[in-house]
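re: ur question from the group chat, yeah i did fold both. here u go
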Amino acid sequence: MNRLLLVAYPKPYRSRQGEEVLACLAEAYPGRSWPPPREVAALVRAGVQARARATVDDTTRPWWLDGIHLAALALAALALVPYLQDVWHWALRIDPGQHAIAFRFSGWYPWAEGPTQVRLLPYGLLPLGCLIALLRGRAWIALPAAAAMIWAGATSPGRTLFGDEGKAGLGYYGLGAPITARDLALSGALCAACAVLAFCRPSRLRRRSYRWLAPVVLAMSVAGSLHVISVSPAFQRGLFALEAAALIAAWVATDATGDHRWLIPVAAVAIVRTQAIVVRPDAFMQSFPDLVVLILLTAPLPALAFTAQRRQGPALTE
């Protein structure tokens, strides 16, 4: 299990010092397959810092382009989250029955005949395809998928490609208000980010391994097996914990490097979710008090900016 902790470190670091770290852990904690929680947190923090420094040291692409790429990845993941169960059921030809997301059936066509509409494909395939393309640095593939998300949300009911699933159905994003595909702030921001990436020297984009999809597949299997829908308390708490972990990782990376690129995805997600609360305050899920939610959405932005500025100060004086 100690070897699993090395995943937090970049590959060059693992090849150079991985065995040394494992030997130190085995010597410090003999007979234990997992170090104490404090040691785990320290190792993960050091791994995030090492990855952040390696990212900043790579001058192949400008920091702002990498930041927009991270923002597009975050928005695509955010758009996919409410439809994890639906895509999993569709892919495995499972009829979820009463557990479907505001739709009677969720399987392959022609099973997908709902109470008022027939659909051919689940809406969640669009953000999933966009996420995969962005992971591989293929913005020219992600751009049509993001544009199709706008088209699906803007067109009137009656289409048979995606039906009403994802447009009239419930979608919930963490602490904010419900966001369906008809709210074009999310898909519009994702499409704009993909357009910038596609036309600003896309060959320079970072290409990540397909292994980054393993958490997505795991989340799909859990949501599909347990029928975890986006409005359940378990979903809300789990997504909140995931977002908190991502914010902590962004702060650790910013504190280690003084780079502003991690501020861009945090700002993009905060703006999209705050917009949903402002536009539809009556649809707020009330999982937390309103003031607490707005503080949690907006506080990370000045905190990250201050951290980057403070970190850059000593570097400039040197």
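okk and heres the other one u asked abt
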Amino acid sequence: MMFERLVDNGFEVLCTNHAEAIVLHDFPDLVGELENALLGISLPMTEIIGGGGGEAKMTQRLRRGLADLHWRKHKFELTKTVDGVAKESISHEIDHVRRADNGTFALEIEWNNKDPFFDRDLENFKRLHAEGAISVGAIITRGSEMQATMREKVERFAVNRAIQDFTALMDFGAGSPTVPQRRQIESDMARGISFAKAWSKKFTSDKFGQATTHWLKLQDRVARGVGNPCPLILIGLPSSIIDMTA
């Protein structure tokens, strides 16, 4: 089985359009590279709660690790010419591209973005594959278990760290909720719900809601044929990478 070590450690892996056969035949060494990079990542809960805008630190660490293994950003330029004259030029930037003797492997990381980014990634893979620019495309995102248990983990962390009110939340470094967020939390607390539960519910709904990039949203698109016929590898990050003590 390809990516057996990932599966044994709780990662979800799905291959389409003969991607597994292609990778095992043409890119066998890259399987180990990806496994080592992914098995080495950790996501402190403090980064989930205290993370501000911009790219997550975990994603940055993973990107640096992949770049060190020559999975680097690349902009593909596709130009159509008529009688030697360029008529149309389209570019597709992929965050991680790994070239090998038998072809090119493209990969995107969508840890926590708006879910239409899946459409962008899959359509880019489709066009690049049709032009012979890539052999296979891969997307890494939050796995289904991580998505399903995120609120519970955030609440447990808040309880363990004695985050029981807005002052404690700000002292921790999570920032102050907006006025509408605060009103919703206070409304839930007025109904007898603890601060940790009310805040974690609102926090995860806003930051990791159903309209963000996660496994089920990605599976849905692939099931509908988005990205076809490009061979695809989907990898879901497990909740086990979350470090509740850090």
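fwiw on the second one: The longest helix spans residues 144-160. The chain has a mean pLDDT of 94. idk if thats what u expected
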